[in-house]
Design brief:
The protein has about 475 residues and is α+β, with helices and mostly antiparallel strands. It contains 15 helices and 18 strands. Bound molecules: flavin-adenine dinucleotide. Its cofactor is FAD.
């Protein structure tokens, strides 16, 4: 059946279909490198019509389809199986349209985040989503994962930037939801179903995105906090300062020391301090100086350095972006969790203690977008006495179990994909899961869109949901 589907696709879409040895390896797995696999074929459409044709044929043949963006995902969401068709949006780029009166940008799904940022800048505006994978990740992938990044504390997640969408449904119908207004209460806001749905409900082909004004005077500051309570007080102080807080990133001591060491950089602040806060603020510099002095006088922070140039600001960000080197320098077991901001310090200490109790010498690094309650934790599996699947699973169970007990989320921004399916119940109730499955069934009754992602077993039939 699947081979028939490939033949039908080739007959209709010709050169847009790659099969066998012609399939580049970048389509085998995403940034996790998890379970690499060559799909039956890769379709690389250049128009919404081609996406629609591809979906109609795959639907008719009941052939699984895996939407693929820039393959920078960290949850295994775009990983294909050998009996599936990968639908890559990489050629769906074309020209963008910027409406300066409305402050919107219309982008094709395959545009990279970086190209979108540049298009907004060329029009004197700004697309405020930013993350380390900006050069490769695509707008469609960002929307499908509801990506977060560095500026969520001010602008919200990708969801908050999306005004309209064009989506191809599982059976090939095109859903035109290309709204470009901020206010629109005409019935259900259907686009929300597709944002963060990880390619399981529809294929995103175009989007209308909200733009922000260009940034004014911005300052990059690295502070050393005396403890986690100091971090929280500094956050409150900056939020109420009249300055606009663009980013509030926290690095625990081990992460900071490791990153400075890797870059052979003399640490801008002494490396033996408990916590480091990297902030980006827009506004008056003298006001910022006053706040830092007050925060020091109140013993929230013990030291701070303000970047004096763009180059210095980049150096400070380099410390935080050392995560890009994790795959080559560590055997990383990555966590992307969220918890109420006030308890993150205590949670990190509890996890650290439990890890060391069970696996003495276990090396871990804590960091994250703490301004938006998002903690990242990376455990270096090379530091475990035995680095095997059972140890990985035990560490995941320990961390996610504690996240569930504290009312947190097992995925703050990367999604569930393949890697976190088993732990979804720690953050989602049975009732919510039933509703999610009902939505999946309504939009994709044959279960062909990204099967096996998010849910551990395939969605059940509607009759079982009644
Ligand atoms: C160095 C680095 C830093 C990162 N930093 C961050 C960060 O700060 N914040 C953050 O949130 N993430 C971060 N990520 C993760 C990743 O960049 C994001 O999840 C990103 O949004 C994925 O986009 P992509 O185009 O690469 O999607 P892919 O990896 O190709 O796919 C991701 C998921 O979206 C689906 N999908 C892709 N395109 C479409 C489409 N057009 N229609 C429907 N479904 C689609 C896929 O099926 C898959 O389930 C980082 C990754 C790296 C490697």
């Amino acid at each position: 059946m699947s081979e028939d589907c490939v033949s039908a696709l080739q007959a209709s879409l010709g050169a847009a279909v790659l099969s066998g040895d012609a399939i580049p390896e970048r389509h085998y797995s995403d940034a996790t490198g998890h379970a690499p696999c060559r799909p039956l074929a890769v379709i690389r459409p250049i128009s919404t019509e081609q996406v629609s044709t591809a979906m109609r044929l795959c639907h008719a043949h009941r052939c699984p389809v895996i939407p693929q963006g820039g393959m920078t995902g960290l949850a295994g969401g775009a990983v294909p199986t050998s009996n599936s068709i990968a639908l890559s949006l990489e050629r769906l780029t074309g020209a963008t349209e910027v409406d300066t009166a409305a402050g919107t940008l219309t982008a094709w799904a395959g545009m990279t985040l970086e190209a979108t940022q540049h298009a907004a800048e060329s029009a004197g505006l700004r697309y405020p989503v930013d993350l380390g994978a900006r050069g490769s990740c695509q707008i469609g992938g960002n929307i499908a994962t509801n990506a977060g990044g560095h500026a969520v504390v001010r602008h919200g997640m990708t969801r908050d930037q999306v005004l309209g969408l064009e989506v191809v449904l599982a059976d090939g119908r095109v859903l035109n939801l290309m709204n470009s207004m901020i206010k629109n209460n005409a019935g259900y806001d259907l686009k929300q179903h597709f944002i963060g749905s990880e390619g399981t409900l529809g294929v995103i082909t175009r989007a209308v995105l909200r733009l922000a004004p260009a940034l004014g005077d911005t300052h990059t500051v690295l502070c050393a906090a005396v403890d986690y309570a100091g971090v929280v007080k500094l956050l409150r102080r900056l939020r109420g300062s009249g300055l606009s807080l663009e980013a509030f990133e926290v690095m625990w001591q081990d992460f900071y020391a490791m990153s400075c060491n890797w870059s052979a950089m003399a640490p801008p602040l002494d490396a033996g301090l408990p916590l480091y806060v990297l902030c980006e603020l827009e506004g008056d510099e003298s006001r910022l100086q006053g706040i830092l002095e007050l925060s020091m006088a109140e013993r929230e922070i013990s030291d701070a350095v303000v970047a004096g140039s763009k180059a210095q600001a980049r150096q400070l960000w380099k410390i935080r972006e050392a995560t890009a080197e994790f795959p080559s320098r560590l055997a990383p077991i990555n966590f992307d969790i969220s918890l109420p901001i006030g308890i993150i310090g205590e949670f990190a200490a509890a996890i650290c203690e439990s890890l060391n109790e069970r696996w003495p010498g276990c090396r871990s690094a804590f960091f994250g977008h703490i301004g938006d309650s998002n903690l990242h934790l990376t455990v270096d599996a090379n530091s475990l006495p035995v680095n095997d699947a059972a140890a990985h699973h035990a560490i995941e169970s320990l961390v996610y179990g504690l996240v569930g007990k504290r009312g947190g989320s097992i995925s703050a921004e990367h999604g569930i994909g393949l890697l976190k399916r088993e732990f979804l119940r720690h953050s989602v109730t049975d009732e919510s899961l039933t509703v999610m499955r009902a939505i999946k069934h309504a939009l994709d009754p044959r279960g062909i869109l990204n099967p096996g992602k998010i849910f551990t077993s395939e969605p059940i039939a509607m009759s079982a949901l009644a």
